[in-house]
Amino acid sequence: MSRRRALLTQVAGGFDPLTYGAPIHAFWAENPAQVLSGTVTSWTNSGASGVAALLENGSPSYVASAINGRPAIEFDGSSDLKVGYSTVITKPGAMVAVAQPDTLLGDNNIIDGQPGYRWGLGEGSGSWQAFAAAATTMSGGTPVAGEPVLLVADISTSGIFRVNGMQVFSGNSSTSGNDLQNLFIGSQYSDSDFWDGMIAFVAIYDAEITTESWFSEYEDGLIDHYGIT
Known about the structure:
Layout: H1 3-13, E1 25-28, E2 42-43, E3 53-57, E4 61-67, E5 70-76, E6 80-83, E7 93-101, E8 108-114, E9 118-121, E10 128-133, E11 136-140, E12 149-155, E13 158-163, E14 166-172, E15 182-185, E16 196-205, H2 215-225
Antiparallel strand pairs: 1-16, 2-3, 3-6, 4-5, 5-16, 6-15, 7-12, 7-16, 8-9, 8-15, 9-10, 10-11, 12-13, 13-14
Helix pairs in contact: 1-2
């Protein structure tokens, strides 16, 4: 579908990122299956695993009008949610997230898997980073405090990293080591390096997605829905 048609579909019926592909984990602050309010102690998982993200630390809070007037969950730099998932997701895979940093702190993580699939601000806050496997880091794009971002990463022998609809990395990405089991949203898995800002959408796949026929519509829809430039 063209970008124009995607825009018309969004206006006519509303954009729903949960209808694209088959994510293992999928968390959306606008999910009609859950009415969020106040402190978020549980976040519904609409992915195949169905395992909810439960409060681990602090008090992440629901904000009804956060990113482009859309709902999100606010993490205050000391809060996180944990998805205790018993099955290991092996690579290749993919990660997608829509977030907005309030501050640019080094090692400030949107998500982190135990033991792998880490994603957020890198050391020194100079770029977005996706930690895909042992000794492999994909980085690019300039973080801006108070500005929303769409991050997409394919994790395979040839990793691809996209920031706000633009490819910023393509290269070798080892498939060995650091697959995904427990998933933390808003921190590193060791309850450290907490995210300070909003998170509106997180999805984890057990396959690459950037070559899928639906990917362009999906990416364009997220960009338009959240007013990402």
